Amino acid sequence: MTDQQSSLIASGSFDQIQVERAISEVRSGRPVLVTSQHGALIAANVEGLDPASAARLELLAEGRARLLLAAPRLRRLGLERTEPGAVALPKVDLKRISALAIDVDARIDAPVAGLQGADDAALELARIALVLPAIVTFPVTEEAAFAQALLSVSDVAIGQYRAAEAHLHMIARAPVPLEGAPDSEFVIFRGGEGLRDQVAVIIGKPDLGAPVTVRLHSACLTGDLFGSLKCDCGDQLRHTARFMAENGGGVLLYLDQEGRGNGISNKIRAYKLQAQGFDTYDADEVLGFDHDQRGFHFAALMLKQLGVTIVRVMTNNPIKIAALEDAGLVVDADQRIQGRLTDQNIRYLASKRDRAGHFLDVMDNVPPAHGGAKD
User: Fold this and answer.
1) Which residues does 146 contact at the CB level (< 8 Å), separation at least 6?
2) Catalytic residue among 173, 292, 312, 355
3) Which of 113, 133, 137, 254 could make a disulfide contact with 70, Cβ separation 3.0–4.6 Å?
4) Total domains in the fold of the chain
5) Are 45 and 84 in a shared domain?
6) pLDDT, tens digit, for every residue of 23-61?
7) Active-site entry in 66, 73, 96, 294
8) What is the pTM of this model?
9) Is 364 a catalytic residue?
10) Is residue 169 domain-shared with residue 154, that is, in the same domain?
């Protein structure tokens, strides 16, 4: 064990451990207790509700339950909102909750109040757990929650959890020859949100004293592995590896941020909405997500631990360039990495160009994407 790892263990935070446990509870469909200086509340993600659990929550809530919804979802329900809000639930009615949380054609059916107490933390916990940002909550005494054997986590711990990425550390590395890039090494880092493993692929022998060619590539199971025609991710991944192998090497960061940080389950939900006519960003908004949930500060930490300080970034996304600069890296240059146009991905790419400002030269002759909810 390295001195760095020993230090991390010695300084391990109980609060961080509780958040990790709470993530597991939320993803397992079980409610948790979220505490704050204003009191405590039981928080249950809507994905985990069934008739039996809803009945138990209704009994405990005594008419005080509320449904917390993110601002993008409230906008889809017909409100002009930039902040999340809460809808009263006199009854924990699964049909109504489902309609408000995810139904495409639903509209708001009651006044929406602002969040209070630990509400913000409960929604943040859902985001970190990669579940729908829709939470049933109600106030409760800690004694009553203890009787239900619920895991307890503080709003402060949840709010500070994302800072855990500073503890990202290298845990393994080995040569892995790739097609088109046989001189490659995989370096695995662990830490950050969910203690997920992040991968740096060092291709060739890049000169760390000069600008290093770098790509930040968010994992895309459908495109990278299965060759989905709905995106250009697989093309970008393979083209990057070949380019680096043929041009002095580089570092390809393969980041566990599926679906622009929403997780694979929500990505597939969004794909279903896209099949119904929504573009990629509108589909995410229907589910309650902003246009991009990702952060890239931890990617900069990976590069720094590898000794990379000056980079040439292969990207079409201006947000990635700004994120590396904000993290203290010097961006010497940036270059585009284009994939194929297909009948299935042309609207997706047009949406990224028109709504997120991606640099897509391959789309120069493609007209603007349709705006609004559907075609």
Assistant:
1) none
2) 292
3) 133
4) 2
5) yes
6) 999 999 999 999 999 889 999 999 999 999 999 999 999
7) 294
8) 0.86
9) no
10) no
